[in-house]
Amino acid sequence: MKYNENQERRSTGESLNTMRTWSRGAEEQRRVIKYNEPGAGEQSRVIKYNENQERRSRDESLNTMKTRSRGAEASHEIQ
């Protein structure tokens, strides 16, 4: 049980971290707009990077759900 609680705590910590990085990314994006008003190419690159980050974190959350369900199946087998 303790192992599962730790896993849960770690996953919530990870989601908090991703939220923190997202807000930091948004700040960077604003900074890019401020400094590089003539160069819009830089801005689109930052936006593309943010979209990739979002997609990656969504995939990670799907993976953790998969592993959790697998863990639940394993515990049923033990019982």
Q: How would you describe this structure to a colleague?
A:
Helix content is 92%, strand content 0%. The protein is mainly α and 79 residues long. The protein has one domain (2-78). The radius of gyration is 19 Å and the shape is elongated.
Brief rundown of the structure:
The chain is mostly helical and 79 residues long.
Write down the overall geometry.
elongated
Range of strand content: under 5%
Helix content: over 70%
Please indicate the count of domains: 1
SSE-based structural type: mainly alpha
- The first-to-last residue Cα distance is 14 Å
Question: Rg to the nearest angstrom?
Answer: 19 Å
**Main sheet attributes: strand count, strand direction, barrel closure:** none
Number of helices: 2
Biased composition (Basic and acidic residues): 1-12, 51-61, 70-79
Region (Disordered): 1-79
List the helices and strands and how they pair.
Elements: H1 2-35, H2 40-78
Structure characteristics:
2 helices; 79 residues; 0% strand; elongated; mainly alpha
